[in-house]
């Protein structure tokens, strides 16, 4: 089968389209014929090997341990392991396979049945592949601290990416007032999705404005904790999803201790959840949520997709499609 493989850390030039062995599912796994897969910031980090902390976390200190990247997949079950009861051959499925070996940028991949959910016919494989990591992170982030209510003031920093475009739509469903921060070329789309206010980070620093928020969903943390504290309401919360390593470490270690007046800062740990996938699918089927897909890439163009995301050029999700349609 064809797959995007890499042997060393570096730029996207290290990624190669190769023929490799088709995997065989274990008893609790299914073999999925991949129809689509989406790119996440993790893929960018794993290709570059930066920050170095990610290597210590298990990706491989000197060389990558994960030969084929891609954790968000959608496809059809080709074969089910002997212990699998939920799925059978031909079922359309999707999910986040980061916890069971990655490998989505390939024609076939094996995945634990427990991390997958059924894909309904009303949703395309490309839409389904855009959902798992970004959609679940958005949903879980908005739930933090019970801040998602009618007229809640929510700021999404880095709103033009996958997590941000999902979070904006979900927050607006609940009647929240949403401010979105990103670069200028993404603001029109965010306004079209319902943002009440948009801020171009290159011309305005939201931490220096007078507005206060119940919740900050932070995808690109780069400020100091005291700067976030200034724009949180007395019982507000800042949820960190991504950003500079120094900011992530500081908030993970000190976020619940340093802030005053009940303000809290927390790091959202990635936790795939089948129930959350089903919630998101239900919203999409009912026309309340729409995955934003920036561009479709062929499997051979996966390096380009990863580079586009790393450069910040993707609005919503970049999706690699392995089918002609």
Low-confidence stretches: none
- What is the distance, rounded to the nearest whole angstrom, between the alpha carbons of the first and last residues? 20 Å
**Helix and strand sequence:** EEEHHEEEEHHEHEHEEHEHEHEHE
Number of helices: 10
Radius of gyration: 20 Å
* Fraction of residues in H or I helices: 25-40%
Question: Can you give the mean pLDDT?
Answer: 91
Class per helix and strand makeup: alpha/beta
**Main sheet?**
7 strands, mixed
Total strand segments: 15
What overall form do the CA principal axes indicate?
globular
* Percentage of residues in strands: 25-35%
Describe the structure in your own words.
This protein is of the alpha/beta class and 325 residues long. It contains 10 helices and 15 strands. The chain has helices spanning 41-48, 52-59, 125-130, 132-143, 162-173, 187-192, 225-230, 245-254, 274-285, 302-310, and strands at 2-5, 16-19, 29-38, 72-80, 92-96, 108-112, 116-118, 153-157, 177-182, 197-200, 213-218, 232-240, 264-267, 293-298, 317-321. The strands form 3 sheets. Strands 3, 4, 5, 6, 7, 14 and 15 form a 7-stranded mixed beta sheet that branches. The protein has a 6-stranded parallel beta sheet with strand order 10-9-8-11-12-13, sandwiched between helices. It has a two-stranded antiparallel ribbon with strand order 1-2. α4 packs across α5 (162-173). The two termini are 20 Å apart.
